[in-house]
Structure formats: C-alpha cells, structure tokens
Specification:
Helices cover about 35% and strands about 25% of the residues. The protein is globular. The termini are far apart. Strands 1, 2, 3, 4, 5, 6, 7 and 8 form an 8-stranded mixed sheet that branches. Helix 1 crosses helix 3. It has about 210 residues and is α/β, with parallel strands linked by helices.
C-alpha cells in the first residue's frame, strides 16, 4: 500500500466531483438501470456506482485491489440495502468460477488495469453465455491531434492518475475479447483534463 495510493483514495471523490455532476452520474444511472441478477463490478473504487443499482440485482460483487479504495468502499455499504460484498482482487485474476455472473460493470477502470487484454478475458470468462458487460471508459481519441498529446503525456498521467493510461483503444480491446457491441456512444468527459475527455458508453454481449 503506497503513500500516494492512500492520498489518491482520500482525494479521489473530491477530484471527481466536477465530472460526476457534469456527465458521469447520468451515464451511470442509465447504464445500471437494466442490470439484474448476479452482477460483478470490476474495480469499484470508492463506490460511485452504488446509488444506481436497482432491486433487480440479486447479488453484487465488487472487486477492488487497492486497499485504501476498498476500505472507503466498504464504509459506504451500510447506506444501501443491496446484497453486496467487496472482494480484494485484480481484474486480471478474478477468483470466481466461469459463467458465474449475468452482468459485469466496468466504469473508469480499464484505463488503470495492468493488462487490459487479460482483464477482459477474465471478465468474459466469469460471465455466462449471453451475459453482458456494461462500460463507461475514457479512451484514445479519434482526433489525431489529441491522440498525439495523449501518447506524449501518458507517462505523466500514469504517475498523477495512479496508473491511469489516457491512450488505450478500449473499445477495440472489448470486441477483441469476444464481446459483441451493437451500439456505443462517444461522449466527452466534461470538467476533466483534455487528454482524458474522450469517453465511450455502451454494452457488449458475451459470445
């Protein structure tokens, strides 16, 4: 547990207040409205999604490998009537049997996993056939000029953002992992630095 990891967790919610109010809360609410059954959330952070899970969720498992984040998340659970538990595990090594979940949720997490390909393979594995991955992720820009700056400033963003990469082609990674994504919305993460503004919102079905 690094000192910066503790500091990052302490100030994360405050830092994200602007983007949450501007755009993220609305997308979280829409994405999670249709989530039901057994649900796994990958990298739950400090619990920004908790208010938006509905009564159709039969079981919610939230994975979070960062101890400072997991502790803050656990302190929030008592405010919700969800059947929820927190599991300390990285996305690349999910300690669950294959075909366990109906839905997987990934919001602003695939930018920080160590190995996106392996993480998505694990998400695919733990979902049942026909299960769905709902996602809200900032990604590499389609605009060449901005993409160049994302690549140039990647090292700085990784240090400041505690492992956050601003230049990942996440939508391609999702489809390469075996998910069918019939429709995706391309948005801008308002109230955030330009290199992390390109945003994708959608859902993919496990083949």
């Amino acid at each position: 547990m690094s000192l910066y990891g503790r500091v990052f967790a302490t100030f994360y919610d405050k830092f994200m207040e602007g983007p949450e109010k501007a755009i993220l809360r609305g997308h979280r609410e829409t994405l999670l409205a249709g989530v039901s059954g057994r649900v796994i959330e990958i990298g739950g952070g400090t619990g920004a999604n908790l208010p938006f899970y509905g009564p159709a969720v039969g079981e919610l498992v939230i994975t979070e490998p960062e101890e400072p984040m997991a502790r803050r998340l656990e302190r929030k659970l008592s405010a919700y009537s969800l059947p929820v538990r927190v599991v300390r595990a990285p996305a690349e090594q999910l300690p669950f049997e294959s075909g366990t979940f109906d839905f997987a949720v990934s919001t602003l997490v695939l930018c920080t996993v160590v190995d996106p390909k392996r993480a998505l393979a694990e998400i695919h594995r733990v979902l049942r056939p026909g299960g769905r991955l709902v996602f809200l992720e900032h990604v590499l820009s389609d605009e060449p000029g901005l993409a160049r700056w994302q690549h140039r400033l990647e090292g700085l963003q990784v240090r400041i953002g505690h492992g956050c990469h601003p230049n990942r082609a996440t939508l391609r990674a999702i489809t390469d992992a075996g998910f069918t994504v019939p429709q995706v919305a391309h948005e801008r993460l308002r109230k955030a630095p330009p290199i992390v503004r390109p945003l994708i919102v959608g859902a993919g079905e496990r083949g």
